[in-house]
Amino acid sequence: MHLHNLYADATGESHFRDIEIDCGLVSRAGKLSERLPASGIIFREVPADYDLDWHPAPRRQYIINLDAGVRITASDGESRVIGAGEVILVEDVSGKGHLSQAVDGAARNCIFVPVE
User: Fold this and answer.
1) How far apart are CA 49 and CA 46, in angstroms?
2) Comparing C-alpha atoms, which of 114, 108, 110, 89 is closest to residue 47?
3) Going residue by residue through the chain (116 aa), what tens digit of pLDDT does each one get?
4) CATH number of 2-114
5) Given its phi and psi angles, is residue 11 left (phi above 0), alpha (psi -120 to 50 degrees) or beta?
């Protein structure tokens, strides 16, 4: 399973990388990953005109987009659209941060899963 990851380097610059989650545990219900730490769940509704200026993530967390995407731009200039059904692990809790913007004029429902 593929995840996007946004992180800050030692100089505070944010970058993307890809993470592959190993789903090697086989059960009758399908393939599973190992259990990963999480400390809660937050549901969020984001308006269609969402356009947030530079900011670091408020905490390390997974963001799971349910029904629409978001364009995230790292401080190194790379921009990715994280679409509906995709997951990103945001870890740029310090440094320059990133931009976040709604795509296609669509409101978005998403889930935050803090990992701290």
Assistant:
1) 8
2) 108
3) 999 999 999 999 999 999 999 999 999 999 999 999 999 999 999 999 999 999 999 999 999 999 999 999 999 999 999 999 999 999 999 999 999 999 999 999 999 999 97
4) 2.60.120.10
5) alpha
